[in-house]
């Protein structure tokens, strides 16, 4: 009986054309049309609000405080990939800093999502490479303990499979299953159009009350049938 190695080099990625189209939408839009699920907890935030990221996930699981497998993942990741690292939410030391982020940028990666801490954040902001983390700590990591690359992981309360679509902006990060991502693009475009229309109404002196409100209140038992606000 064969066993899957802890270090997997080859994965099936979400299609590049889907990534390019999904990158045009806010993370909030994609999360809504994906069923209002798949978002990382708000502890995982961009080092700068202007940072944006979109691409297929290369997943990494490490022991808290050890970044050996991050280096391994960086060695096999392809241009456009997003490193998604389960650092167990540890804030006692940084798992990445300016040198590693510079290497990721030079390798053509799209960004880093890390459920853990980083350091050299002023330098990373100057580099402009998208990094999302739970915090900063000047303490450095060890490089002693094996973990896993391109296995399913849990990051910030959300499951991530290798090759899944990752989209992040100032609001945070959403994960969409690789097989599902393409089917959401039309719904995302419609939601953007609907929200744009609603904002135009509000800003142009149109009706302020949403059209669905009374129906929802009746369904919830707040308003009786035939009763209005």
UniProtKB/TrEMBL annotation:
Protein keywords: Magnesium, Metal-binding, Methyltransferase, Transferase
Cofactor: Mg(2+); a divalent metal cation
Residue positions binding Mg(2+): 120
GO biological process, one term: methylation
Binding site for substrate: 97-100, 119
SUPFAM superfamilies noted in UniProt: RraA-like
InterPro entries referenced in this protein's UniProt entry, alphabetically: RraA/RraA-like, RraA/RraA-like_sf
Top-level lineage group: Bacteria
Keyword Magnesium: yes
GO MF: metal ion binding; methyltransferase activity
CDD domains from the UniProt entry: RraA_family
Any Pfam family the entry gives: RraA-like
Protein name listed in UniProt: Putative 4-hydroxy-4-methyl-2-oxoglutarate aldolase
Taxonomic classification: Bacteria, Pseudomonadati, Pseudomonadota, Betaproteobacteria, Burkholderiales
């Amino acid at each position: 009986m064969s066993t899957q190695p802890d270090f997997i080099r080859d994965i099936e990625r979400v299609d590049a054309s889907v990534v390019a189209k999904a990158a045009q939408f806010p993370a909030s839009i994609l999360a809504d049309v994906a069923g209002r699920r798949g978002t990382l907890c708000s502890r995982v935030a961009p080092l700068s609000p202007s940072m944006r990221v979109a691409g297929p996930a290369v997943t990494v699981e490490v022991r808290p405080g050890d970044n050996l497998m991050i280096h391994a993942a960086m060695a096999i990741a392809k241009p456009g990939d997003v490193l998604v690292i389960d650092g167990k939410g540890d804030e006692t030391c940084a798992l990445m800093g300016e040198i590693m982020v510079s290497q990721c940028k030079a390798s053509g990666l799209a960004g880093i999502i890390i459920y853990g801490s980083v350091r050299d954040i002023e330098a990373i902001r100057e580099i402009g490479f998208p990094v999302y983390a739970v915090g900063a700590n000047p303490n450095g990591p060890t490089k002693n303990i094996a973990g896993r690359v391109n296995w399913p992981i849990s990051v910030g309360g959300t499951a991530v499979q290798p090759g899944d679509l990752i989209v992040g902006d100032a609001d945070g990060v959403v994960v969409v299953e690789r097989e599902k991502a393409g089917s959401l693009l039309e719904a995302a475009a419609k939601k953007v159009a609907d929200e744009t229309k609603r904002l135009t109404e509000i800003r142009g002196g149109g009706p302020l009350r949403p059209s669905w409100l009374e129906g929802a209140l009746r369904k919830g038992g707040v308003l009786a049938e035939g009763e209005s606000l």
